Fold this protein.
Amino acid sequence: MSSASPTELRKAFSSFATGVTVITGIGNNSQAVGVTISSFNTVSLDPPLVLWSLSERSVFMDAFTVGKKQLIHVLERSQEDIAMRFAKSTGDQFAGADLVTTPSGLAMLPDCVAYFECETIAVHPGGDHRIIVARIVNMQHHEARDPLVFSRSQFMGLRLPERAPIE
């Protein structure tokens, strides 16, 4: 094996299909912020923990420091436009969006597959990113909705087969 350039590495990483999330939070200026993230993963069931990463150069980093709340939205297969909207850090990402505000003041986008309201408990360095570990404080999910998937630099919908409920 040889070392790869960042471009080659990015291309190889893109062969791993991931779900697509938008994470909303509240910045130091008390304004709602949102970012599209595909680097989301479960850590623990007890306590319920997840992790995700954000570029250390992100203008939104202050919204996700230790003690801050965030709402992780697992996007539905038809929500590519939302993923693209929050992939940009410029402009008013929330303009024209049909939003609900949660009791903790977080912006909630409608019709997602799942929602995880979390609180950041740790932020770790990870190269050119920061790894954010968050404790889930509330959640909801909609099994009838199919997730949006990202692979090889493109979005695709994933249609899940009907299945019997898990007891």
